[in-house]
Structures are given as structure tokens and as C-alpha cells.
Amino acid sequence: MNVKPIGIFDSGVGGTSIWKEIHALMPHEDTIYLADSKNAPYGQKTREEIINLSVKNTELLLARGCKLIVVACNTATTNAISHLRENYGVPFIGIEPAIKPAALNSGTGTVGVLATKGTLSSNLFLKTSKDHASAIKIVEREGVGLVPLIEAGKINSTETRQLLIRYITPMLEANMDHIVLGCTHYPYLIPVLREILPPHVNIIDCGAAVAKQTLAVLKKFNLQNLKKSSGNAQFYTNTDIEVLTLFLEDVDNTKQISYLNF
Predict the structure, then answer these.
(1) Is 66 an active-site residue?
(2) pTM value surpassing 0.85
(3) CB of 127 closer than 8 Å to CB of 96
(4) Could you count the other beta carbons within 10 Å of the beta carbon of residue 38?
(5) H/E element holding 236?
(6) Is 73 a catalytic residue?
């Protein structure tokens, strides 16, 4: 099992932000990434639809021999990971908004959360908020329209900037000092966010923490790949490969990007 790949899936290209953290921490691990861009965004779908898509992605990765699966999608984690863990025999690593560190470190007592509808309305998000942020004010905003713009490669567009200003303004008016990015697509917006936000506002992204948790689980189950050479990275998308290629321009030449009808 040790030499088998880590599987990663997301509702599109956003989860590559998680893949990059995993690859940086564990460069010797082989990886397979599924970008389900055809069905993005998951955040607007019903829980049943999200579970069905997550099952489809999981079974594709298991068919390719994956030893562990990272659900690199906040919406899929909050709605489907319990179902996946109950029905499949490999470890699953999930993603959820990093509310706890934001709440612990907030000086103003107000934290902003930018996420999808599917994440904000989930039981897991509500439980995390209750457990770790009951003493602070959380200003939630649904990032409607952001994922399609990112999927289209329009990160620096006027439309993207205007949407971000619209969503962030109420958070700033409430005196937030931390903003939690509750979607794996959103870290790609950090350069734009830094231009919009005052310097005292901290941006919280869970990518590095997810990579550390992945490594911890591999060690726990003795699944680490101990080879010395660089890992092989395979990326699959069910739409045009152009956008996925754009998001992976900074990755070394060991990657393989292919179209797959799934």
C-alpha cells in the first residue's frame, strides 16, 4: 500500500491549492487529482447530489489504487465525508473552514467567513462554529459567483474584485480582524484580497493544516512512500484542460494533465 498514490478530489481546480501544500510537504508521494469542473460549484447543489458526486469521485480514485483520499472541497467534506468514511475502507482527510484559529486569535471578537451555501448551511459548519466560536461574532457571506469566475481563470477580473468588495464590506463594517476562506478555490483570490483588505485583517486558509493532517494519517497507518525520487502527479479534469494547466504553471514537469470523462 505504501507505494500507492494519494487521491485528491474537488469540484474543479480549487483543490489544487490543497494539492500544492501536500506536494510541498510530501514531494515523494505519488498523487492523483480529480477536478470535477463539469459539476462546479458543489455549493449550490443538494446534499444528496453532493454525496452522489463525492461517491463517484471516490470510486474513480479507488479504482486507480489510491491508499488515502483527500476531500479537497469544503462543501463535499461538510456534506459527504461521513458517508464516505462509513462506506469505504481507506482513510479520508476532510476540509472545513478554519474557524477555531480565527476565533482564538481575534482581538476584535468578530470573524468573517466567506464560503459556499453548501458549507455554511451544513451541520458540520454549525457544530464547528458552536464548539469554537460561541463567544465571538461570525459574519457569514456566501461567495456566489466566485467559483465560476475562478474556474474560468478570471481571478484578476473587475467582476471578481467587485464581488469580493460586496461580500467583504459587511464584514469590515462589523469590525472583523480575521477572514476565514471556506472554499478551496478561494486561496487563489488571496492576492486580490490583500489589495482590498486593510493590513490588520488576517486571512485564514487551511491548506497547510490539511497537508500536515494527511502526513499524520499516513504515518499512523504506516502508509508513507519512502522512495527518494519525486512523486508522480496525475491530474484529470472533465472539462477543457486549459484552466487546470494555468493553475499548475508553477508546478514542476513531473505532472501529467489529462481530460477524463467522469
Answers:
(1) no
(2) yes
(3) no
(4) 13
(5) strand 233-237
(6) yes
